[in-house]
Design goal:
Layout lengths: L3 H18 L2 E2 H11 L8 H14 L2 E6 L7 E6 L1 H31 L1
Antiparallel strand pairs: 1-3, 2-3
Helix pairs in contact: 1-3, 1-4
Length: about 110
Amino acid sequence: MLNRELVKGSTVILVLTLLNERPMYGYELVKEMGSRSGNELQMKEGTLYPSLHKLERQGYISSYWEKQEKGPDRKYYRITDEGKEVLAERTKEWSVFSAMMDRILKWSGQNG
C-alpha cells in the first residue's frame, strides 16, 4: 500500500490527467486510478471528493449532472482551460521532481 501522504500530494495531477482525457464521475475516477496503477493506488472516495470540490472552487474543473436510464443521476467532472494550464505546469514540475528523486536515490544506492 502506498504512503497516504504521497497519494494526497499527487491527487491534483492524477485527477486533472484523467479528466483531460474525458469527463468522468467520482467513482469512475477512483476505479480508473486503481486500474491504471495495477490496483496499487487505492484512493478512497472520502479523499477524492474533497479534492474534486477544491479543484472546482479553484476553477480547474467544472461539473454537471447527467441523467441515467437506470439508477440515480451522475455528477460528471471535466477539466477547464485553466485546469489544462495547471496540468501542464504540474506535469513539468513532476518530471523535474521525479528525475531529481531518481538521481538522488540512484546515487544513494551506489554510495550507501
